[in-house]
Amino acid sequence: MIVILSKWVAASGPPLFCRSCRLVQSVASVHTSSATNGSFSEPYRKGGYGKYENLSLREELKLLDPRGKLEMFKKEFKLWMEEMKELAINDPAIVKPGDSDYVFKFNNQEVMDEFSVVSDKDHNEGFSECEFRLNKYKKAVFKGVLNSRVPKDGKIQRAGYCNITSKRVRKSFMRDSFYEWFAYTHLIMRVRGDGRPYMVNLHREGCFDLTWNDMFCYILYTRGGPYWQIAKIPFSKFYLSSKGRVQDKQYPIPLNHITCVGITCADEAQGPFQLEIDYIGVLSDPSHTEEFAYEMYEVPRYVIGN
Asked: Which helix (H) or strand (E) holds 83?
């Protein structure tokens, strides 16, 4: 685990390069991680995929401030001043019934830079390729070629995924923060797809190592064709998974502890794919009273859940 600027700030966490969702529940199958280390402990936040893990403090500082001109400190100090102003004003937002709010409005490159793009080819686990760019109409385009061909290394059993994930939401000086969506009931997206199903991932990175890879998922069905669609997904429909495995013990998504938002294409249908995204937001609908869509039941004590 990397602790960024651990000698200067009190909070610690993963680097600026947000954990990508490599292991996801697809429509037809489950992509799982490599062999476990034989213990419950998880030594790395990114499950061994982190390119910037095990770096020295000097190397971390060089990544954050490559020019050595303390530009990063200036930016973080400016952000801290804005936080202090908001704290002094003390005017919390009031969410009324029917209100909606943008989380990501993809109309400029600055928002696009908040996302990381990854495929199985990036980790030598497959041959899929993808990109995430802004088109001339100021809309985000997530496209690529999905390839389920498995590398002949004797280790990888399944392949074929492409993913985009937002960076971890943070306060100034890289202090960990969370999206506060407890006043909302739905995740809304305006998209134009190709008929494929995509997976929407809401990451919930907990304090303990066993919860670093927890995320809540639900399928986004696209119609295809020339028309845009607005997908309204209730938060009560999201189910818990970890490292690509749906967990036996489910619980409602904690809306005040969401750290990242991601979208994955992994439906085992080889060929090109394309998903245009106008915005990702949240909606408050008081008529939706469902707290959790999945019925839970007691299991015998000798049955161990995932």
From this structure: helix 71-89
